[in-house]
């Protein structure tokens, strides 16, 4: 019935803003919470890493004159805001969750450790791991790879607004075709922008498979857990 027992779900901050140009679209947020609840009820252990691009990105901040490290720290704070929003939406849907932060900021969240995340999942709570890696010059994609490897997830599910990995950007190139499955090496060689190079390389070195799918379509997360072929599988 279920293909994966323990997942690391990566949600992009950008998707969280829905139709708005900025911030958090509560409709999208509640849809995400409902989808997560659905797979939790199937007995899947879930850890989540959320991006912060709907609020702030260090790199774009640097382009406007911000100090890069401070900008990245602002971006990491943005991931905490999104994590708290998701935790709140999950609570409203009747799902217990625990926000962990890679940078100390009790009582907003508990200071992250692998064991706290695993304990939370084993208690039936969703572990929401915020601040990415906790260091500047990284992305939440790399944070997801790192946490996915640490918590010994079966797979990293990258929920985006496109339905998989394409030969080119499908939003720009109408001739782009989708891969149903592809190797880490081919992703790196073709320079495909599934995730940044650091994140893909980490998954490759530690053999964490990635599944890219469209999380903005309600019901898709459950389909992925059930093994339906709706996205792209990236593996060795
Ligand atoms: N960030 C960081 N270190 C990390 C993860 C994130 O400095 O380990 C900062 C970085 O500035 C990044 C921002 O947080 O631009 C938001 O994360 P990301 O761009 O990955 O969010 P997404 O694109 O998924 O919305």
Structure explained in plain terms:
It is a single chain. The radius of gyration is 17 Å and the shape is globular. It has nine helices and eleven strands. It has one domain (6-235): Carbamate kinase (3-Layer(aba) Sandwich), CATH 3.40.1160.10. Helix 2 (26-40) crosses helix 4 (68-92), helix 6 (140-150) packs parallel to helix 8 and helix 7 packs antiparallel against helix 8. The strands form two sheets. It has a nine-stranded mixed beta sheet with strand order 4-3-5-2-1-6-10-11-9, with helices on both faces. The protein is an alpha/beta fold and 236 residues long. Bound molecules: uridine-5'-diphosphate.
Summary of the model, kept short:
The protein has 236 residues and is an alpha/beta fold. Helix content is 39%, strand content 19%.
């Amino acid at each position: 019935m279920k293909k994966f027992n323990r997942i690391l779900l990566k949600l992009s901050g950008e998707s969280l803003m829905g139709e708005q140009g900025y911030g958090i679209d509560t409709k999208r947020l509640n849809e995400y919470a409902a989808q997560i609840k659905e797979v939790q009820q199937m007995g899947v252990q879930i850890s989540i890493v959320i991006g912060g691009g709907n609020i702030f990105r260090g790199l774009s901040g640097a382009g406007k004159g911000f100090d890069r490290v401070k900008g990245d720290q602002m971006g990491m704070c943005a991931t905490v805001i999104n994590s708290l929003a998701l935790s709140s939406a999950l609570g409203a849907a009747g799902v217990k969750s625990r926000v962990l932060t890679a940078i100390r900021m009790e009582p907003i969240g508990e200071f992250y450790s692998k064991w706290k995340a695993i304990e939370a999942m084993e208690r039936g709570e969703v572990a929401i791991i915020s601040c990415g890696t906790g260091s500047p010059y990284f992305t939440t994609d790399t944070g997801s790879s790192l946490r996915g490897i640490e918590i010994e997830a079966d797979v990293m599910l990258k929920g985006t607004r496109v339905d998989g990995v394409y030969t080119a950007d499908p939003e720009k190139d109408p001739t782009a075709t989708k891969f149903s499955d592809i190797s880490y090496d081919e992703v790196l060689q073709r320079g495909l922008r599934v995730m940044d190079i650091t994140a893909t390389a980490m998954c490759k070195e530690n053999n964490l498979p990635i599944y890219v799918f469209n999380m903005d379509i309600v019901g898709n997360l459950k389909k992925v857990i059930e093994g339906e072929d709706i996205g792209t599988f990236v593996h060795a």
